[in-house]
Task: inverse folding
């Protein structure tokens, strides 16, 4: 995915129509939580680059799908699990139309392409093959995922949503099985414009492996606690896949002279000097995906204004099948008035910055618990609770309500850290929420 070398059209478009972009275009927002900064001091702040998908005209005009359903049929899936998995896959297929392409791959000790990639011209045959799945053997998760991606590649089309939906309840124990190997596979698949959504069922799977595989390909991850929830999870995943309005999303944020990039909080990005480049595989109708960059801003005099940076965005519009270009800029002013600084706060952007700062601390707590440092991990989470609630109280209203839900989650997690018997499940929940918060995943709840 290459960034365009020229952005003249984008700048002209932004000048002409400002922030109110055309109805069939995504909206680009480049903002900072504190548009007014304290004068005469060097300080750190954040830039948010957010892209919101335009509203689809109707579900009937949605982008066609090209999806591989990859199911674990190892011995641990026997009984109720495999029954529910088959019903969920059948429910998903029944949501598809004749314009969609589907393939079904099953894996245990080996991998079988049960349904090669095909349009839904013979739906009943596909459903019968899914119904015939039986559980036995080990877990060749790597090969199953790769085979699923190969099926998607057969009919890869940039004007389709190309996705692998992977279900597993156990550890990868046949073929490559390390987190790094699956992460590399996710990166390889993602680089081809295909995302991998991972569903981890029960307490036997490796949550680090599954979340990294999903994140590396810009996919979603859901922790499913009960097999009876599989149907709802599959149904929601396919509904969100049908709501993709933009793909091949590439952004280049060019920082102004003197602005120093420190770190990106919530996704992989390439920082080279004053340029920060990143990308997403897809944007969903009505939902925002965003990047948070921490920056250092040099001191400015009272009344002075300074541009922080300009973002240049390109993406494939799934409604028009054209490549759209947008640009937007963030700036700050300097003041010695504490009241003016507080009044100017962009609460919507600040809320997202708080979520990502807190998410990094939550990840640090997980790592401390893994090292056996339970009290230290609890201290990090309890400090997180105070930070989140303090910021929520300062913002008030709906912002406080949303942040309170995250603070409460951290508080519960702190209490659960001391229980060795519950740590396996608690850790999976923490990883699922960490992935959810950082990816801005299109899911109502990452734990079912």
Result:
């Amino acid at each position: 995915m290459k960034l365009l070398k020229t952005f003249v059209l984008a700048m002209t478009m932004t000048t002409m129509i400002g922030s109110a972009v055309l109805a069939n275009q995504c909206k680009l927002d480049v903002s900072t939580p504190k548009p007014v900064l304290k004068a005469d001091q060097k300080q750190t702040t954040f830039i948010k680059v957010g892209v919101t998908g335009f509203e689809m005209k109707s579900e009937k005009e949605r982008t066609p799908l090209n999806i591989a359903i990859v199911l674990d049929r190892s011995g641990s899936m026997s009984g109720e699990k495999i029954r529910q998995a088959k019903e969920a896959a059948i429910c998903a297929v029944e949501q598809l139309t004749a314009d969609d392409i589907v393939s079904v791959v099953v894996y245990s000790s080996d991998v079988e392409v049960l349904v090669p990639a095909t349009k839904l011209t013979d739906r009943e045959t596909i459903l019968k093959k899914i119904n015939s799945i039986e559980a036995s053997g080990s877990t060749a998760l790597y090969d199953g995922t790769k085979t699923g991606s190969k099926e998607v590649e057969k009919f890869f089309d940039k004007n389709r949503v190309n996705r692998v939906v992977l279900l597993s309840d156990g550890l990868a124990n046949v073929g490559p099985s390390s987190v790094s190997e699956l992460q590399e596979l996710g990166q390889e698949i993602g680089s081809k414009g295909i995302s991998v959504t991972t569903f981890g069922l029960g307490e036997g799977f490796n949550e680090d492996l599954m979340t990294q595989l999903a994140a590396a390909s810009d996919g979603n991850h859901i922790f499913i606690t009960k097999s009876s929830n599989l149907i709802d999870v599959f149904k929601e995943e396919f509904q969100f896949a049908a709501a993709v309005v933009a793909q091949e999303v590439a952004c280049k944020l060019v920082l102004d002279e003197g602005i120093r990039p420190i770190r990106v909080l919530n996704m992989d990005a390439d920082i080279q000097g004053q340029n920060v480049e990143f990308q997403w595989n897809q944007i969903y109708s009505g939902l925002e995906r965003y990047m948070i960059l921490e920056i250092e801003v040099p001191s400015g005099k009272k009344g002075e204004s300074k541009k922080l940076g300009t973002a240049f965005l390109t993406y494939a519009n799934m409604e028009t099948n054209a490549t759209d270009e947008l640009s937007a800029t963030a700036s700050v002013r300097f003041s010695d008035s504490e009241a003016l600084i507080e009044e100017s706060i962009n609460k919507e952007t600040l809320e997202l910055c708080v979520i990502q700062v807190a998410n990094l601390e939550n990840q640090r707590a997980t790592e401390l618990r893994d090292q056996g440092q339970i009290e230290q991990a609890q201290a990090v989470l309890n400090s997180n609770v105070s930070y989140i609630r303090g910021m929520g109280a300062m913002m008030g209203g709906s912002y406080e309500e949303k942040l309170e839900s995250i603070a409460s989650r951290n508080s519960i997690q702190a209490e659960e850290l001391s229980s060795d018997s519950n740590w396996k499940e608690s850790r999976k929940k923490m990883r699922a929420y960490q992935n959810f918060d950082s990816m801005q995943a299109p899911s109502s709840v990452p734990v079912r």
User: Anything to note?
Assistant: The two ends are 34 Å apart (CA to CA).
